[in-house]
Every structure is written in C-alpha cells, then in structure tokens.
Amino acid sequence: MRKARSDSVYIVMVKREARRGRVPLANRPMTDGAPRRGMPATRRGSATMQSHTSEPVHLRAADGQVLAATHFLPEGPARGAVVLASATGVPRRFYAPFAAYLAGRGHAVLTFDYRGVGESAPERLRGYEATMAQWGTQDLAAALAWMAERHPEVPQRVVGHSVGGQVLGLAPPERLERLAGVLLVASQGGYWGMWRGAGRGVMLFTWYALIPGMTALLGYLPMRRFGQGEDLPAGVAKQWARWGRHPGYFLADEEVRSAPGYARLRAPLRSYAVTDDAYAPLTGVQWLVSRYPNARAEVRSVSPAEAGLRKLGHFGFFRDKARDSLWAEAAQWLEAAHSPA
Predict the structure, then answer these.
(1) Domain boundaries, position 27
(2) CATH code at 15?
(3) Among 65, 173, 181, 328, which residue carries the largest CB count within 10 Å?
(4) pTM: predicted TM-score of the whole model, two decimal places
C-alpha cells in the first residue's frame, strides 16, 4: 500500500483493500476462520511485544443483525480485553495495526464493522434500514457482550474513535459499569456551532444540504465519492445530519436523552483532542466528555509535533507512525486504568 497523502485518501485506500474479495455476509458461514499469526516477540520501548494471532469472527446483535469482526489474541494469557469502536464509515481493517499492537502487549482485542459498513453491509444499501443509534444500542452492545463472555476474568476496556465514543453511552449500562477504562480518540459533539471560522460553514453545508440532499437523491450517503470511507445507509446518514443541526447534537433524539449509560460510566476516561483535526475541534471533544458526568475524565490535547509527525488529523492516531509515541502512551494509560472500587 502506498503512503497516504491525506486522511481521506488513506481511508479510501484502506476501504479498497477491505473490499477486495468481499463476499456478502449472508453467504458466509457463521464459523471462525483460520487464525493468522502476527509478529514474533520483540521489545519496543519498555514493553515486551508478544506474538499474536487474529481470526475473523461473527457477532449477532440482540435484534439478529450479523456483524463481521476480528479477534486479536496474544500468544500467552490475556491481561485485558479491549473492544475497539470505529469512526463513521471506517472499516475495521483500518484499525488492525493498532489492534495488533495491543495484542502484542498482551491484550485480547475485538474490532468490528457496524451494520451497514464494511463487511457488515449488504450488497445494496438502498432500502437497507439502520440508524446511528443502533451502532451503540445493538452493535457495540454485542461486541461488549461477546468479549465479556470470552474473557470474563480480565478487565474490559474500550477504545472509541470519533462516533465510537459518541454511541458508547447507548450500550447497556450494566456493561458500562464494568469497564475498567475508556480511551477516546477524536470523539466529539458534532453540532455545527462547535466549529469556528470556515469550518463552521463547512459543517452547516454538510448537515443542512450535502447529507440530506445526497441521501434523498440516491437512497444512501455516497461517502466514497467524497473520499470519506464507506457509503452509509440512509437512516444512519439522516440521523447523523439531524444530530448535527441540533445544539444538543445526539440529544436531539429521545432515545439518546433517556439512555442511562452515559451517567452510569464511572471508569477512568481519557479523550484525545488532536490540534490539527478539522473534524473534532477541542470544543466538541470537551462537550462529549461532559456527557459522561460520572466518569473520571480528562482531555489530552496532542499536536503532530508532540508525536514527532508532520500531520495527525482525524485519523493519524491509528497510523503505524504513531506506534512509538501515541500508541505507547495510550497503551500505558489503558493498562493503568481500573474501574472504581
């Protein structure tokens, strides 16, 4: 794969890789594939990296939706279990290097595709029913339950990217109460008023014209045409745009306003705000953290220079170039995070 020249180009390239040889999910057997072996044991910084394996698995949400996922396992006993909740329209393959890194440090990790995205999408999105809220109430809930069942004796933690941190509070509160720690990256409120300058105009156009117009015309949101990852089901796109037009963002929907999970999360929470991220301004990151009022929360602002990079943006945290800086720091924080007594 060639080096990406921008965040959007990088996502498109990853998406194309994920699409190659794709088989409709309905035609795949509900069995695990053969495990794939990862890198041999090495030492990076202060952490000894173990060998690890990864295997494709399938999750079944409470409403029957089947989701494609990948389970990463360390060679030895797992010291923790991590569920990685993706950004909007980003296939789970994008997160494989970061998941493998955590597995190399001894963690079991689960990545998954939300309904309507990646290998959890039907062949045709037109007419396919899904909402963004279901990504939390159904899909993330299924991922948390699957990992808790397979790794009941170790602490469970969540890494959420962008919308992954937004919908976390929609998962069952009894699952959230048991989390040992939550690490968010570029997770934000999306109301257009949280942006300043030209960014505000871009978001106004996006929420009021671009997404509603394209979705009404095509019956789905063609994200690929704009170099922004996977296409999205109409229901997901419409709800997303409605949230973006509302000062309370996802609080525009009663389903979210009444969700108990946001207040029931009491674990340590670190949220990374990236200084050159046009999609997640600091104001939006701080707003989302405030939606988890009982979490032991902190916002960590990080610049590309601090990570030794020229650019980070909305997706750079999960690129391999951040391994020895941001990945190491994030992993150390996760490993030290423990649920309240």
Answers:
(1) 7-192+256-336
(2) 3.40.50.1820
(3) 181
(4) 0.86
On whether the CB atoms of residues 249 and 243 are closer than 8 A, the answer is: yes
User: Based on the number of CB atoms within 10 Å of its own CB, is 146 exposed (0-12), middle (13-18) or buried (19 or more)?
Assistant: buried
User: Phi and psi at residue 91, in whole multiples of 5°?
Assistant: -70, 155
Supply 178's token pair. Answer: 């048991």
Number of domains in the chain: 1
The two structure tokens encoding residue 52: 């690890």
Within-domain flag for 200: no
Confirm whether 213 is domain-assigned.
Answer: no
DSSP-based three-state secondary structure for 16: helix
Round to whole Å and give the CA distance between 233 and 212.
Answer: 12
Q: pLDDT tens digits for 235-259?
A: 999 999 999 999 999 999 999 999 9
Does residue 215 lie in a domain region? no
Tell me if 203 is assigned to some domain. no
Residue 37 falls in which region: left (phi positive, over 0), alpha (psi -120 to 50) or beta: beta
